[in-house]
Amino acid sequence: MPPLAACSGASTPEFLGGSELRVYLLLLGAVVAALGWSCARAAAGDAEGQVQPIAFSHQAHAAAELDCARCHRGAEKGAEAGLVAVRTCASCHRRIIPDHPEVQKVLTAFEEGKSIEWKKINHLPAKSMVHFHHGVHTQAGVACSECHGDVASMTVAEPVLEVADMGWCIDCHRSREASVDCLACHY
Q1: Among the residues of the chain, which ranges form H helices?
Q2: If exposure means fewest CB atoms within 10 Å of the residue's CB, which of 13, 26, 100, 177 is most exposed?
Q3: What is the pLDDT of residues 30-59, one digit of tens each?
Q4: Cβ atoms of residues 59 and 130 within 8 Å
């Protein structure tokens, strides 16, 4: 193989013909794309297949006509929707199906003063440098289902969109005539 300096010219290197160079670059591009996708999914906290500590049913709670903000207290005014505190679950479930095995886990955690380590389903990676505020979006009339899907019909909550997909956000902002200034979200 020729020294690296011999490869710096504008012509195709002797050791890599034109068609071989195209194949090499195509393969290199595929590897870089695959690594980029893999890293992006890892950074976003790929929630597919996560097992929650309690087999929680959004369907059952939606059927009882509980509003999202009843459990996700920050959704209406806070920066984060928040994950439900064990005391919130226990306040109802001391009376409602207290003998159910999953409810027993909740009540035991409450009695022992422990929190439930829920796993976030929609998570913006810190390196995306996006400052998303749930309250601002809720107060602007954005329904929970617009970003989170029809969670009320899900047995297990799963992400329905890539939360770090800036294109989706821009499209939504434009359709609502909201600011698309970079500094509205990136500060």
Answers
A1: 18-44, 58-63, 68-71, 86-93, 101-111, 134-139, 144-148, 166-175
A2: 177
A3: 444 444 434 333 333 444 567 889 998 899
A4: no
